[in-house]
Amino acid sequence: MSEGKTFKIAVGPVHPALKEPVQLNCEIEGEQVKHVDIELSQVHRSIEWIGTRRNPVQVVFLAEKICGICNICHTLCFCEAVESIAGIEVPARAHYIRTIAAELERIHSHILWAGVAAHELGFDSVMHYTWKLREKVLDTTEYLTGNRIGKAIVTIGGTKRDIEEKQFGKIREACNYYRQNFSRLRDIFLKDPIIKARARDIGILRRDDALSLCAVGPTARASGVKKDVRQDEAYAAYPDLDVKAITPKELLGEIRGDVYDRIAVRLLEVLQSVELIEKCLKQMPEGKIAYESKLAKVLSDVKQLKGEAIGRHEAPRGEVFHYLKMVGEETPYSWKVRAPTYNNILSWIPMLKGAQIADIPIVAASIDPCMSCTNRAAIADGKELGNEKLHRLSVEKTRSLKKGPGSERGNCN
């Protein structure tokens, strides 16, 4: 290859290093990435569109399906928006239950991510060990909600289930389990020389880039941006818990904004979540778990609302934002969701510039992307594709692909 010559390669939308479809169009010189363009829009589930054809109580169940890993955050945000429009006051005990559920979800998400990161580095034995640790939080979640993944615990005006004092022991047992295993996790991910070589000074996101690109969550905090909705706009039980945004400096004594720092922040946040859950158990107030126990009454109160509001929550990946507008009809007039990957995905551009091709998987994984949360479908000019036309276009597309490269593609106009 002549000096200065660049080539283009596409990573994705289907690639072993990507857990969901997204395309990274990389311009490379030798083994070095010179520039990246990001191509989204391979996933459309029309959840927002479906939500505008359901009443608010039904949308709660739909919101939970936006993300399998962090589903509390979406139901919580949507319910906050409805409660704001309706003027519903959530009981204090429900706020604490919501917070415990959210922090258990954070532990689950961060440990799951650690396993994925190990896999991207080629350490499947570490992935299996990490996911073995993850089982404890899944068992605890199932014990409290009946489900390991979809919790179905948050509802408009409170929660569907209580956390009784007789259940506190199991939760404390899980908290002690992660306290005892924290040093082991820290040593595996931060002291292993191979992981350190693959993560230190790789995928650097400078603080000013994190701010200008509006990065959120661990991605922003690992670059020294002390941004956390639980701290900045405290909600649920967080005003009573004194949450502080975590940066790598607390553990490492410095901030470089690389993959290594993003690992450190997530590990520290597992320990922080344990502490927050323990505080919630200690300070749990007595009282109701919902403003109204009869679902029919809740539906009557919310299905003909007028007004608009937002819901915000610090999800494991960063801030989740829901916008809701009601105009006196049974269904929402508008419902828009902004998941944290939408903010963080542009961070890939400065992170990957100057990286080696072999670094692309771990750098991409370091923001903990969720493409299904990110992509949304919008209807332009009132055009909708019905089942018959979608099926016809799919058949045409498949036939054209079978003809091989260079063949005429199906007309999707």
UniProtKB/TrEMBL annotation:
Keywords: Iron, Magnesium, Metal-binding, Nickel, Oxidoreductase. This is Nickel-dependent hydrogenase large subunit. The keyword Iron applies. Its cofactor is Fe cation; Ni(2+). Fe cation binds at residues 70, 373. Ni(2+) binds at residues 67, 70, 370. Residues 121-376 form the NADH-quinone oxidoreductase subunit D domain. Mg(2+) binds at residues 48, 337. One of its GO terms (molecular function) is nickel cation binding. The keyword Iron applies.
